[in-house]
Amino acid sequence: MLFVGMIVAGVAVAAGLVIAAMGENMLYFYSPSQIRAGEAPSGPSIRVGGLVVEGSVRRGEGLEVSFTLTDGAETVDVRYAGILPDLFREGQGIVASGVLEAGGGRLRAEEVLAKHDENYMPPEVAEAMEMARQGGKMVPPHGARQ
Amino acid sequence: MWAFLHRFASPPHFYRLSGRMAPWLGWACLGTMLGGLYGGLVAAPPDYQQGESYRIIFVHVPSAWMSLFIYVVMAGASAVALVWRMKLAEVVAVASAPVGASFTFLALVTGSLWGKPMWGTYWVWDARLTSELILLFLYFGVIGLHSAIEDRRTASRAAGLFAIIGVVNIPIIHFSVEWWSTLHQGPTVTKLSAPSIHLSMLVPLLLMAVAFKLFYVTVLLMRARCEVLERERNAGWVRALIAREGSE
Q1: pLDDT at A140
Q2: A134 domain residue, yes or no
Q3: Structural domain harbouring A90
């Protein structure tokens, strides 16, 4: 029993050290705040995750589209030409991968993936919640904090 | 208590009891699965964001839970086998591995099919998806190691040790969505706060989870019976069994 316990403890410590050493490399995407703080490299392709700012989506010629991603504190502009996933909409969580343009702050995306949250409910319930949210005075309208 | 456990774990007793239990568990599995499938595919309302596509959750999530659950059972049984030299625990560990690997494969495939329409991709190398893929390789490792060694008891010890070492991956899979930024969303049900899924969807989801558990136990008993017979083929009770079956 001691032998088995020691093996588990040893492997757990090793795994913990590996995870701690990998740190940032395990992150799937950077947040707009990290981009603004200059934590993301500007040469290679990176991923940025955030919510699409309401009213920021602009469609250009063909499949050209540009929008702004936010994490509540900072924003990053994204330009993309391609097919967007079904779940892409304003207020939705998105992961865009591409290269930061010189000067930073703007991402030339090659791929846009939608991220959905862990909530599942019927449309009627979502509508009722939206109504309650807009009717209630306690909660400010969406995006009011920015 | 110990006397009872010893009696239960003795191969002939286990063989008799499991033979009586397996059909009942199988029927219970079929019943809950039909109920869960009806509740999930017909009765439950569509999702407010994902529409009808979310219904794959009723297979994907229970499979993913089972992939973790079976690994923990397998590693636990391996530890019991290593510490107390219990034959039946070895059998449970060996019999669990292919079932767990199947559920892991199912979770990966259904997740991939779900990812394409919703996320826009079949696969990304984020922490959740990668750690679940590693789990599949761990199962393959246990199965492979076990079948690579001729002597069954040595094979069980080696594969068991490997299974125990791999158990560190289980909390990594579960917490990957909280520790790191991943494309996969956070937990819906398996968290301390209330589940963030509507009751009309939660009930069929839990029914399916129960059905998958019953399926595992049924298949485990059947596989374990077979394994017990093979291991004990020279024992008196198996010879007596064969003689009796043959004369009938």
Answers
A1: 42
A2: no
A3: 28-120
